Amino acid sequence: MILRFVFILALLIAVDVTIVVLVVKSPGAIPPVAVAAVALGAVPLIAMAAFHMLWRPMLGQFDRQQPSLDAVRRRYQSFSIGIVNMGFSIHVAVDDEFLHLEPLWPWQVLGAMPVSIPWSALSPAPRDAINLFGRAVRVNGHTLVGPKWCLERVPQAPR
C-alpha cells in the first residue's frame, strides 16, 4: 500500500518536473504564472492519491456515525496516520463509543472521508512511536497520532 503510493508519488513528480522543464525551455515568453500553475497542479493529485491509496484503506472500514449530543468537539485539529499528515484540518468529536474524525471539505472532495473509529479498535502504540505533537495509538496496524485530549481514553503502552 505505501510502496504503491510512493511509486505513484514519484511518477507524479517526474511528470510535473518534465512539464515544467519543457515549458521553461520552450521558445517564446512563458509567464512565470503558467510555470507556477503547472507545478502547483500536482498538489491536488498528490493529495488525492494519498487519500485514496492510504487514508481510505487504513480507515475505510469505519463508517461515519452521528456523534452523541454530549460529545466533546474541537475543530481544526492535527492528525496523521501512517505517512498521511493532516495538520489543522480535522474536526473531531469524542463520545463514549467513537472517535469521530471529519476532514475539512477540500480533503473530502479529494477523497478523505469522515470516519468514526470505535474505542475498541484503538490500542496503545509502542513507546518508540513518533508522538512529538500529540499521542500515538494503533488502529488497523497503523499508527494514528492526534491530540492528547481526544486520545486519552486509549491506555499508554507500558514502559
Folded structure, characterized:
With 159 residues, this protein is of the alpha+beta class. Helix content is 38%, strand content 27%. The chain is built from 5 helices and 7 strands. The protein has helices at 2-25, 32-40, 42-59, 105-109, 148-151, and strands at residues 72-81, 84-94, 98-103, 115-118, 123-124, 135-139, 142-146. Strands 4-3-2-1-7-6-5 form a 7-stranded antiparallel beta sheet. Strand 2 and strand 3 form a beta hairpin. The protein starts with a helix and ends in an 8-residue tail after the last helix. The model has no long low-confidence stretch (mean pLDDT 88).
Features:
alpha+beta; 27% strand
List the helices and strands and how they pair.
Layout: H1 2-25, H2 32-40, H3 42-59, E1 72-81, E2 84-94, E3 98-103, H4 105-109, E4 115-118, E5 123-124, E6 135-139, E7 142-146, H5 148-151
Antiparallel strand pairs: 1-2, 1-7, 2-3, 3-4, 5-6, 6-7
Helix pairs in contact: 1-2, 1-3
